[in-house]
Amino acid sequence: MVALKTQIFRAGLSALWFSGAARACERWTAGKGAILMLHRVQPRDAREFAPNARLSISPEYLRALLAAFRAADIDVIGMDEALARLRNPGRTRRFVCFTFDDGYRDNLEHALPVFRRFRAPFTVYATTSFVERTLAPWWVALEHVIANEAEVRWSAGPAQKSRTARGMWSGFARQTEPCGALEARPGAALEARSGAALAAQPGAALEAQSGAALEAQSGAALEAQARLVLAARSGAACGAWSCGSPKTDSRLARRTCSLCVSDGEGAPLDAEACAVRPHGAGERVLRFATKTSAAKQRAFAELSALFMQMPGAELRTQLERFMTEHGFSMRALAEREMCGWSELRDLQEAGVEIGCHAVSHGCLSHESAETVWYELSAARSLLEAKLGQPVRHLGYPYGKPEHVGPRDIAIARELGFASAVTTRAGCVFAAHAEHRHGLPRIEVTPGFEASPHYLQTIVTGLPLLARNRGRAVVLD
After folding, report:
1. Rg (CA), the chain
2. Helix/strand/coil for 460
3. Using one digit for the tens of pLDDT, what is the confidence trace for 400-425?
4. Which residues pair with 151 in a beta bridge?
5. How does DSSP assign 172-184, residue by residue?
């Protein structure tokens, strides 16, 4: 189903491009230009389990895009120049800005040589905890652990005794299956999950614009499961166990039917033990059989839902514990995958603009106003102290409306950032000069690598205006 929707979407883009409709309308639909959102540039990888693959494009595709924009007489410029053109009320040359989120090492190793060849600028939004090696991207960590393990454990912590908890965990336990049961399921049953797993990815994957993978997920069930397990881990009050109606609880049970719940010592729990566990008597442990690619995809989706719900302050402790329990080093992973200060300085010296991407890459809408202020201001201060230059531009860690709202945009404005980019899809119009802290971006994914015309069609703005119901500026 996901593949079919992608093919239909591509066919629609091709029709708009080769019919000439997109280019005929671009004078009215393309606005001033577009800001592109990327994450990684890496050689093509044929691994079967690669849930973060949509975060990466190949160097060949990047070269093809830059060549196509040059051939179309579209300027590739930096964020400062983009803001200057926004402020100009007259007609200006169309532009694209390339922006990279998170600060991956391959931005230096594979992206920079391509941009140098075209003498084109780009921006890297760096998360300071990744640079400092005190945190690694949890989505990368999950992929690394699951790819290398035949079984993955999640320790959810002790739970309080309550009637609500008893009923929920009892219903949950009655419908659980042994770890091996997931692998024994028919391929058709797992096929829907393998595509859906991508929907829980971060960055580009969490903000998947096609919507194909997201439609296969039950968002309410995922959210309910996250609240349930996090409440168990933190020992929250019994009221936090309630996920809503019996209908919601049944969805939760169906969603988690492949999990094996144990008492922390490997023995499966019966219904009563699942429901009642006083403090200090053991941990909630979720086990995932991850021997097959389909099972790995399912485990990635389930655990991603949990990590996505965590406040930034908890991410470091929980991720480090998770990796340590499986024999991996979070610091070593960060060193392997992410830019350090030396790499950021190399990028800066090459003319790359370094922007702010918060301290911990937490979801801002889940945080207090004080925490959001700290996440943005502390990250900028550290970047400026280490790099010796002002940091003018911000990329929100997650940029959909449910991830960053008016409060967070107001904080970014108060902190004095010149601009802040979201992941709301759209081109940039003159009206955005009054909304510089909620700028839209267009995601660049490997799904369009077959030909540059797919992205070129999107950049004309016609498909985006149709999606946004004719609105040039979308703030909700």
Report:
1. 23
2. coil
3. 888 999 999 999 999 999 999 999 99
4. 289
5. HHHT---TTHHHH
Specify the range with the lowest mean pLDDT, choosing from 79-88, 209-218, 361-370, 430-439: 209-218
- How many C-beta neighbours within 10 Å does residue 224 have? 22
Asked whether residue 199 carries a pLDDT value surpassing 60, the answer given is: no
Rounded CA-CA distance 263/283 in Å is 6
The string of pLDDT tens digits covering residues 46-66 is: 888 999 999 999 999 999 999
Structure tokens that stand for 200 in this block: 């829980």
Name the token pair of 401: 């409306």
CB 195 within 8 A of CB 213: yes
Distance from C-alpha of 123 to C-alpha of 100, rounded to nearest angstrom: 6
Neighbour-count burial for 293-309, b at 16+ CB within 10 Å, e otherwise: ebbbbbbbbbbbbbbbb
Q: Which residues are CB-contacts of 427 (< 8 A; sequence separation ≥ 6)? A: 29, 30, 31, 32, 33, 34, 440, 442, 459, 461, 464, 472
3-state secondary structure at position 419: strand
259: three-class secondary structure by DSSP: coil
Let me know: does 468 contact 428? Beta carbons within 8 Å: no
Q: Distance between CA atoms of 186 and 196, rounded to whole angstroms?
A: 17
Q: Is the pLDDT of residue 207 over 50?
A: no
Q: What's the token pair of residue 234? A: 């933190």
Residue 215 CB partners (closer than 8 Å, separation 6+): none
Q: Provide CB contacts within 8 A for 438, sequence distance 6+.
A: 409, 420, 422, 424, 475
Average pLDDT of the segment spanning 84-101: 93
At residue 23, the pLDDT reads: 82
Measured CA to CA, the distance from residue 292 to residue 299 in angstroms comes to 11
Quote the DSSP letter at residue 36: E
Pairing status of strand 56-57 against strand 151-157: unpaired
* Measured distance CA(300)–CA(143) in Å, rounded: 7
Q: Which residues contact 226 (CB under 8 A, 6 or more apart)?
A: 305, 306, 308, 309
State how far Cα 203 lies from the chain centre. Answer: 2
Sketch the domain layout of the chain as residue ranges: 2-133+338-467, 138-331
CA separation for the pair 398, 43 (Å, rounded): 26
Q: Does domain 2-133+338-467 have CATH number 3.40.50.920?
A: no
> Strands 284-289 and 151-157, how do they pair?
antiparallel
DSSP states of 48-77: S--TTGGGEE-HHHHHHHHHHHHHTT-EE-
Write down the residue that tokens 């829907």 correspond to: 192
Residue 148: both structure tokens together: 């290398």
